[in-house]
Amino acid sequence: MRRHGLRLYSSDTRTWLHRDRALAAGHQAARRWEALPPAERGKQPLDEQLAMSLHHERGPMVVEDVAALPASPMIVAEGSVITPSCLPADAHAVWLLLHEPDSRGIPLYALLAEEIEAEVRVAHAPVIAIDGVEETLAAVEELFAEVLVGAPRARTLDERRALLREANLAQVEQVRGFYGRPWATGDPDAVERTFVCECGDAACVADVRATVGAAETAPALAAGH
Asked: Strand, helix or coil at 3?
């Protein structure tokens, strides 16, 4: 995204917006999840946990979100809720699959990894096995080389900085969305997250650790930028 001047859409920063959309639509699994005390959610049967995760419902929401964004610069949409069945036929897509899925010992995450891989395999969708950040990046760039050649992108420094700011503010909104739930406690301003450096240099790969309050107030800049 930074290297090519593209807009990033990360589905992980839309969790609460999507949950609110599902609640407004009367989605029963979303309502059940909100009604449960947080400590009880992981104790439900796995099929119920999967339903309450909104995994299958959020993919179409991502497509709707992306369709509502400006067509230029080109959008890179990413996230585990994006599956082959929800994408339009003209989408350029690839799925990055771990050699050994990292479920972190959480049964729902293990089930989601199985669901995602099964959907991708059944659809014969393009796959890249993750094997290091640089190696994976090079493989993705090679796969989409022709698309990138003619892709509309941010050209000026101000345009690049605006995209980076947008990506960081999406993270801010995600944290605030969590703390806006009636069952959440704590101060969102004090939460620390890793943000991308907003200097706008195409060669910059620096990240910035900052509180949500600080990142919302001013651009995140790595030391020396």
From this structure: coil
**E strands along the chain, which residues?**
7-10, 75-78, 95-98, 127-130, 192-196, 207-211
- Residue 64, beta-bridge partner list: none
Q: Is pTM beyond 0.85 here?
A: yes
Q: Which helix (H) or strand (E) holds 64?
A: helix 55-67
Structure tokens at 4: 């090519």
Q: Counting Cβ atoms within 10 Å, is residue 212 exposed (0-12), middle (13-18) or buried (19+)?
A: buried
Q: Are residues 75 and 110 in the same domain?
A: yes
Domain that holds residue 8: 1-153
* Residue that is last in its domain, among 106, 124, 153: 153
What are 39-80's pLDDT values in tens digits?
A: 999 999 999 999 999 999 999 999 999 999 998 999 999 999
